[in-house]
Amino acid sequence: MLNFLIKRLIPRRDDVQDNAVRRAYGVLCGAYGIFLNFLLFGAKSFAGILSGSVAVTADAFNNLSDAASSVISLLGFVLAGKRPDPDHPYGHGRAEYLAGLGLSLLIVLLGVELGHSAIDKILHPQPVAAGLLPAVILAASIAVKLYMAAYNRRIGARIGSSSMKAVGIDSLTDAVSTTVVLLSMLLARFTGRVIDGWAGLAVACFIVYSGVCSVRDTVSPLLGQAPDPELVRHIRETVLARPEVLGVHDLLVHDYGPGRLMVSLHAEVDGRGDVFQLHDAIDSAEREIQERFGCQATIHMDPLLPDDGELTRVRQELEELLRALSPDLSIHDLRIVPGPTHTNLIFDAVFPVSDPRTDRDLAARVRSLVGAAWPDRYPVVHIDRSYV
Fold first, then answer.
1. pTM (2 d.p.)
2. Among 118, 129, 207, 355, which residue is least crowded by beta carbons within 10 Å?
3. Residue 263's pLDDT is what?
4. 3-state SS class at 336
């Protein structure tokens, strides 16, 4: 059904890099989820009345809260699709992350509330009357929720939507919850043992755990997570594929929401080349990054003298010396400035972001190593961090 709606209502459905297409996916899936959750709420409420099961009735209101979650997800896509304005020049893409965070917090809250209800059932157990129709309704509900989990996770991965992935996790936890309710109902019917409370508590713990994991996944891009290593590798390869570019460093990816990535980097070029030709090559690289990866790119040119044997030799010796501090260390922007009493070595040293030492400590260690190895050379070092 959903695939049919996608084909009919989203003309350019394969162009998932386009913000309008992403928004269309989000709005359609959100509206579809609202419809299914209201349908499940009505069916489970009817099953709860027939069976007299408080667990089934609570599970029905769980679907009602899911409908509210789908509304939040839908609103997140609508807000994220707003055009940039003077107060938000980079757009409103992070509204989708906020929607995913709100949904994840609702999942946690729901799990806590279900836990309270489950404890009350453990302390005050109640008999459950299980009939064929309530059992069939619950079984059908499980199938619908698994279907919702599958399409939300599939489309969420396709368009890179954290809020849709959160909806998929929520749907999966609902399927587990309803399964436990159904099993406890059948167990009460055939054995007379009432375990609704314990089953509900186990489900509540699972829901809280899933919600906490979802909170972590949605908070991370809001705080500024490291970029996807594969994306960084492809960007580097795209720039280095141009013969004018000799090296790449200081590559940064700024995430302002899905479809709103800003890339900046430094490209090393031959300082004796024609500046207009080099500038044209850099412009072409920026356009290619934008077309291939759907992100804006700014590239700064760093001129080098690749045939300078002395500079190359000093750079190699310096990197070998400083790898005692970190095997993943690299240096760039090296300049040699000789003077009457000593020679300044001006460069940037790149350490992994995982290195726990402070920049000040690392700079002091670099100066100590260089001073001990070459008393006539003084390092003027700037510490960079590599996030990939």
1. 0.60
2. 129
3. 92
4. strand
